[in-house]
Structures are given as structure tokens and as C-alpha cells.
Design brief:
heterodimer, A: alpha/beta, Rossmann fold, two-stranded antiparallel sheet, B: 2 domains
């Protein structure tokens, strides 16, 4: 990864597109410090993120991965995980509200072992949102889903952007999906950003 | 049969070792048929084991006349060797040798020290070194099992660990389920040994004590004492090694260092 300089603003979705191995996921992992940059840094609300404790940073910059990686237990247990790290508890009403937001009202008591792939990914979204993040990193969250589940998750992503004003960074290998969801895009090739700009200009070029 | 053929004790011992090794070799060949490759590892381990135990037997002969304090150096050397052997079961893990050696020193070393002070282990070198080495060897096995299990569990659950980190969990709690799993799994042999004592097996130490004229009840109780010490030493070793390793698989910025294909410093 070299010379990656860009900004993301509240309420917008920035897509990072490129072929497999171009460095999209590597770039995303640097943004919540799951990996350490060898040089350069990231600023969150103007503050160098190395000055922010990693746990606090990752609460503020939430991440939804390609696969949901739910923890054993109930859906509600998974939603409570993030707040519990800060000794906070999530009320039943808030859990239901988060689950309704991803189209899974009434799923709180279900065992995650019995969820479909699409349902599990939606729980993963709700679990990340339970931390009330200021920015959201989405690492190809629909790549392992069937077409119906993919549309449902995309609908949730649009809703989150519209209602919560969160800055979203979406990694996708699918330019059509990027066009549907993002306002701006970066194109990556071999670890470098080769194009950047409005989605209509970048994807068409 | 061998006793009738060979009257010299050394020749008899070598012949007995050959027969026992043949049995082990047959298991290896059976495993090979099922695609499990153990030939080179087991051959080296058997030859090494035989040479080492004969060498130790010879050294013990010399040490019989040495003062008791020399046993401390011998046990310390055994702990370092055990740390090196055990660390090989934790390939790719950061500072595996240091972690293993410290863990075995804390686990086996502290139990040996306490038991010597309490008078459970006799201080003459002929008693302290064999019993101490038994504790160190078992601690080494437990440590190897714990690190191996911890490593494989973390590598198999990188996604879950990073999902926890991404949700704001600290490094320790992100790998906590795998620390507990490794600790429990590593103690299965020690627990099973205690559970089956006298029913499934009568250990060599007790047999030796009986042959040397000890009262059967005392020999039996002392065997229990040894197994309880083994459990204590193994448990403490496993606890220390998994806790030390838990801290080492995370960077200061709470990033998972142990990942598939990742090379780590000091591994």
C-alpha cells in the first residue's frame, strides 16, 4: 500500500473498488487499525488515530466483515458484546430497535447457529451499530450472500447512510454495487489508488 | 524369551529396546498407510530418547557421589532443554522458547521447590533429580499441548478474534475462549492419569519402590503424591504459558500478530 490519501465525510459513502489482491481490504484494515501503517496515519475528526486508544477507535469506527463471524449464543448476546466491553448494557428495547432496523424484529432470542447467511450478516450489521459508530467500514459485506440477501443488505446500507449520517467506506469488487451505494469512489490497482472522484466519473472511466 | 537367550544385562537391555522400538515402528507403518507421516519424526525421537536416557543414566552414576546442590543446576538445565523441546510445538508463535521456559520454570520449578521445603521430595541427588525430572517432563508435555492447542484455535478463529477487536474488545478478552480451551485440553492427560491410577496402570515408580522393599501401602500413597505433584506442576505450567502467550499474540495496539502465514519475531 503506497500513497493512499483521501477523505471521507459524515453522511457519505465512499466506495473502494478494484480487482482481487489490489489492496482494498488491506486499506480498510488500516482505517480501524487492525493493521499498523508502516508510514503515514489516519485522522479521525482531525485527531491522529494513534492518539486514540485502539478500543475506543474501533468503537467509533465500526467494521462489518465479509463473513459475519458471530459469537456463539443468541442474537441479543451478540448485540450486547460491543457495549459490554465498556461496561455498558444494551436495553431490550434498544436491541429490538436495532434488529428492526435490519429487518430482523423478534430475532433477539434466536441462537445464531440457526440463522441463514443473509440473516447472520444483518445481525453483524446490527451488532456493529450497537456501538453507535461515527464511521462504518464495510468489507464486501454481500460477497458471500445470494442475490435476495444481497439486495436486503444493500437496502440496510442505504438506510444507515440516510438515517444515521455515518461516514461509510465500502469495499466492493462489483462496480455496479458501488454505483448503487456510493457517491464517490477510489479505484485501486496493485496497492495504489489510481483513480478517485465522483462515482459516475470513476466507474465509467 | 530374551532372558533365556541373553545372560548379559546390557545386551538384554538393548534387545528389549529393539523389540519395544519394533512395536512403535509397526504403529508408524500403520499410520503411514493412512497417510499420516511420522516415520522421520518418530525415528529421530526414539534414537534421541535412547541416547539421552543412556547418557543421563551414565551421568547419574557419576552424580551419585556429587553434593546435593549440583542437582539444582541439573534441574535448571533440564528446564531449559524442556523449554526448547516444547517450543517446537508452537511454530510461528512469538517468543515460544522464552514463554515455554518461563512457564516450565514457574510450574515445575515452584512445585519442586515447595515439595523439597515441605519434605515431600528427598534432597539426596538420587531422589531429587529423578522425581524433579518427572515433573519437568510432564510440565513440558502439558506446555507443548497448551501452546499447540492455543495456536491452532487462534489460527482457526482469526475472523472471530478480529471481529471482537473490531467491536472494541481488548486483546485479552478477544482470545480468552482459546486460552481457556488450551488450558483445559492440556490438562486432560494429567487428569486422566490421576483418575485411572491403580485401575488402568501401576506406574513405574511404585513398581520400583515395591522391588526395592518399600511397604506396598506407602509405595501406593507416594505414587499418588507424585501424580498430584505432576498435576500441580502441569497445571501451573499450562496456566503460565497460556497467559504469557495471550499477551504475546497481540501487538501494543491490540492487533492480532498470530495470523496464517504471518512470520513473527522470536518464533
Amino acid at each position: 500500500m503506497e500513497n493512499a490519501t483521501f477523505e471521507v465525510f459524515r453522511g457519505e459513502t465512499l466506495a473502494i473498488v478494484g480487482a482481487s489482491g489490489s489492496g482494498k481490504t488491506s486499506l480498510l484494515r488500516l482505517l480501524n487499525r487492525l493493521d499498523e501503517p508502516t508510514s503515514g496515519t489516519v485522522f479521525l475528526e482531525g485527531k491522529d488515530y494513534r492518539q486514540i486508544p485502539p478500543q475506543d477507535l474501533r468503537r467509533r469506527v465500526g467494521m462489518v466483515m465479509q463473513r459475519p463471524f458471530l459469537f456463539p449464543g443468541s442474537v441479543a448476546d451478540n448485540l450486547r458484546f460491543g457495549p459490554r466491553q465498556r461496561d455498558e448494557s444494551l436495553s431490550d428495547d434498544r436491541i429490538e430497535e436495532l434488529l428492526s432496523g435490519v429487518g430482523l424484529a423478534g430475532y433477539g432470542s434466536r441462537d445464531v447457529a440457526n440463522l441463514s447467511g443473509g440473516e447472520a450478516q444483518r445481525v453483524s450489521f446490527a451488532r456493529t451499530l450497537a456501538n453507535s459508530p461515527e464511521a462504518l467500514l464495510l468489507d464486501e459485506p454481500t460477497s458471500a450472500l445470494d442475490e435476495d440477501s444481497k439486495r436486503e443488505v444493500e437496502r440496510i446500507m442505504v438506510k444507515i447512510g440516510d438515517e444515521q449520517g455515518i461516514a461509510c467506506v465500502l469495499v466492493s469488487h462489483d462496480p455496479a454495487q458501488a454505483s448503487r451505494l456510493a457517491e464517490r469512489a477510489l479505484v485501486m490497482e496493485a496497492g495504489r489508488i489510481t483513480r478517485a472522484g465522483k462515482i459516475s466519473e470513476v466507474i465509467r472511466a | 524369551m530374551l532372558k533365556h537367550l541373553l545372560s548379559n544385562q546390557l545386551q538384554l537391555g538393548l534387545a528389549q529396546a529393539a523389540v519395544a522400538a519394533l512395536a512403535a515402528l509397526m504403529v508408524v507403518l500403520l499410520a503411514r498407510k493412512r497417510g499420516i507421516q511420522l516415520v522421520s519424526e518418530l525415528t529421530i525421537a526414539m534414537v534421541r530418547g535412547l541416547v539421552q536416557i543412556v547418557a543421563v543414566g551414565s551421568i547419574l552414576l557419576l552424580l551419585l557421589r556429587s553434593p546435593s546442590w549440583t542437582s539444582g543446576f541439573l534441574l535448571a538445565a533440564m528446564i531449559v532443554a524442556a523449554g526448547a523441546t516444547s517450543a517446537r510445538r508452537a511454530k510461528g508463535m512469538p517468543q515460544a522458547f522464552e514463554v515455554s521456559t518461563w512457564a516450565i520454570a514457574c510450574g515445575a520449578g515452584s512445585v519442586i521447590a515447595i515439595m523439597v521445603i515441605a519434605g515431600v521430595i528427598d534432597t539426596p541427588i538420587t531422589a531429587l533429580v529423578p522425581v524433579g525430572s518427572m515433573l519437568i517432563a510432564n510440565a513440558m508435555n502439558t506446555n507443548g499441548l497448551a501452546l499447540n492447542r492455543f495456536r491452532s484455535d487462534v489460527l482457526a478463529h482469526v475472523g472471530e478474534v478480529e471481529a471482537a477487536l473490531a467491536l472494541g474488545a481488548d486483546g485479552r478478552s478477544s482470545v480468552a475462549p482459546y486460552v481457556q480451551g488450551a488450558f483445559e485440553a492440556s490438562l486432560i492427560p494429567a487428569i486422566d492419569s490421576l483418575r485411572s491410577l491403580g485401575i488402568v496402570w501401576i506406574p513405574g515408580l511404585m513398581a520400583g519402590m515395591l522391588l526395592s522393599g518399600a511397604r506396598p501401602v506407602y509405595a501406593a500413597i507416594y505414587q499418588f503424591v507424585v501424580l498430584a505433584m505432576i498435576f500441580a506442576a502441569s497445571g501451573l505450567t499450562s496456566l503460565v504459558s497460556t497467559l504469557l502467550m495471550r499477551a504475546r499474540v497481540m501487538s501494543p495496539a491490540e492487533q492480532l500478530i498470530l495470523r496464517p502465514g504471518q512470520k513473527t519475531a522470536g518464533s
